[in-house]
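User: Could you check the structure of this?
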Amino acid sequence: MRNLAAAPVFSLGFRPFFLAGAAFAALAVAIWALWLYGRLPGAQPVGGMLAWHRHEMPFGFAVAIIAGFLLTAVPNWTGRPGLNGWPLIGLVLVWFFARLAWALPVSPVVLLLLQLPFLPLLAWVLGRDLVAAGKRDNYPVLLMVSLLAGCQVMTLWGLWTDDVGLQRRGVLAALWLVGGLMSLIGGRVIPFFIQRGLNRPATPAANPWPTRVLLVGGLFVALTFALGWQEVPSFWLAAVFGLMGVLQLFRLWRWHDRGLWHVPLLWSLYLAYVWLVVAVFAMALWHLGWMPLQSLATHSLAVGGVGGLILAMIARVSLGHTGRALMPSKVIVAGFVLVLFAGLLRVALVPFSGLGLGLSAVLWCLGFGVFLLRYTGVLFRSRV
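Assistant: Sure, the predicted structure tokens are below.
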């Protein structure tokens, strides 16, 4: 047992959580697609398959990757040791049993009790180190993780009370919080990765106000979803999304360097971030009555944005933090393309053809599958 705690895979948070999150991403979407096409008969989980899919993509998949990234980043920010060994194994098991509970014949009470501890525990671990190191500039990250826990409570309460509207509001609020976290973290690391990856000189510090406006805007948008204000088109909400879209476009313009198109670890991040901009402008168009389906904006963010940025980020972070050259194989580059096209098919083809969802799911599963194929050995082995 001592050897298990000392295994390289449990030396830092990104290793087990990136593997678990990527595996769950492929498995969960495969199960969802098979069920939608009538290829998965049998008993459904508590609340039905739609409730399971809504809950598990943000609170199972996305949260696992967020945990892996932050459990690795916070020690770098604070200079304090990262979670490892048995405490890390314990946190992974809390996440795992929450996923497993949906497949077991447990009561709704047991299901809820197994779901709730993970995010508060993660917030406590992160907060303990950030507060001890006095890293107040990173408190917004802690706030977003804590708010994600609140969204999960809201979603599960909707499941408990059979309130589908409450479930939906909790999930959408969580998704846009994840989008806000993408904007916050991406605003830090993407320009840094571009600068380092292309060996460019350091650029002057950007004006902090656009970043602050995007942070407040992201939190406000999540709140409006939680309160149900996004269910009816509104001109002033269109203006909020429009402002955020313009600021995000300005970011993309400021980060752009022609050299990034020759570096897969850079263009994959950049194009995934473009999906976030697409989602924001799509919401503005929906509120103006110029887009018929709000779900197109939702899946622009969820599939193209969150999925694409996660795959690009875990590929880059896994190489960097295991001491390997930042040169991804052709297979994982193909994975980047597969997930980006999964987003495109989910948004552009689904409104016109039922095949779009199945094709999107297949590309998504293949994209995360190739990550597991190429990176499982890397994440299980010691740092080079």
